[in-house]
Amino acid sequence: MHQGPLPPATDFAAYNKVLPGSADRILKMAEREQRAAIRLRRLDWTSQFISMLLGKSFLYVLVGATVFLIVKGKPIEALLTGVAPIASIIYSTFFGDRKVKGKEKQADQDR
Q: What are the pLDDT digits (tens) for 89-100?
């Protein structure tokens, strides 16, 4: 059983025999496909990194606002502002790993 982007060597030679230059075209097609897959992975990693940075930054802003409101003597407003980062921390602590593991499993199945 053969699996991969290129045909087995015997078939590869047969393609080139029937249509001269087709082996080179098949190789170029496989290379383009690989470059496109790499670009997509990089784009995915970049977008995940930016999302993580923005999400963390927003949480720090909310925590800062909560501390500021506590110092200013506004406990109700501080509580309301602090609920989002606290809930996010609790969620990521208990459920975040499952979400990442699920994505890894899906990526392995896609390969």
A: 788 778 876 655
